[in-house]
Amino acid sequence: MNQGAAPRLAVGGICKLRVIELAERQELPVAAGSGLFRVLSGVLQTSVIAEDGRRWISAFHLEGELIWLDRASVRSQIAEALCPSSLAIVDGSMMQALLSDDDAISTAARGWLLRSYSVSHRWGFLLARSNAVEKLSFFLIDMMNRLDGRSDFSLLMSRADIGDHLGLTSETVTRTFTHLQRSGCIAVRGKEVSIVDRPRLLFHAGDIVST
């Protein structure tokens, strides 16, 4: 969920905030290491790439959300900015202090852990058992919920990005957007999306949301 502007990360009065600025479609440098990052502005996507070149985008991360990277365990993991973005690096040695002393970070961390737990189960069901309409409907409902219930938003990711996230081809994603628009669930203008009929969209995503 969108947490707004990130707080100042400080312990003992000494600012520990380290910020990385990324241009559009720039990857987070390997030198940034592994650990916990917070999106200060912009949108990032994290992905893994198989040896044969196939890509799965595991998540899209909005402003205020947290990203966990463990490149020691998942060496092909990549974080890429979808627009000019900035990240705060949270030092591992500071995690306990931050989670106990900083209400904003603590709230963000708890929300992130709870969301990760529920979404991981739904995502497994989505990828294994759901059709294209169900997948895209759930994706749009989830995006709306993370944007504090806003029904109008811009999708900075491409149709190919969304396909690599949902396990669909870009052509199927495009056809499914058209289907949902013709059925009156959404309105699409390029990258701008409006949720027109939320109950119907929820109905399409019902089996995933109910898991």
Cα-atom radius of gyration: 18 Å
Cross-sheet strand order for the largest sheet: 3-9-4-7
Question: Percentage of helical residues?
Answer: 25-40%
What's the number of extended β-strand segments? Answer: 12
Structural class label: alpha+beta
Terminus-to-terminus distance: 20 Å
CATH superfamily of the largest domain: Jelly Rolls
The string of secondary-structure elements, in order, is EEEEEEEEEHHHEHHEEHH
> Which segments are poorly predicted (pLDDT under 50) over 5 or more consecutive residues?
1-15
Our count of helices gives: 7
Strand content: 25-35%
CATH architecture of the largest domain: Sandwich
Shape: globular
CATH topology of the largest domain: Jelly Rolls
Mean pLDDT: 80
Question: Major beta sheet, specifics?
Answer: 4 strands, antiparallel
Q: Count up the domains.
A: 2
Key descriptive features of the protein:
alpha+beta; 211 residues; Arc Repressor Mutant, subunit A; Jelly Rolls; 26% strand; single chain
Please specify the SSE layout and strand pairing:
Elements: E1 10-11, E2 14-15, E3 18-22, E4 35-41, E5 44-49, E6 55-61, E7 66-69, E8 78-81, E9 85-90, H1 95-101, H2 103-129, H3 132-146, E10 152-154, H4 159-166, H5 170-182, E11 186-189, E12 192-195, H6 198-204, H7 206-209
Antiparallel strand pairs: 1-2, 3-9, 4-7, 4-9, 5-6, 5-8, 10-12, 11-12
Helix pairs in contact: 1-2, 3-5, 3-6, 4-5
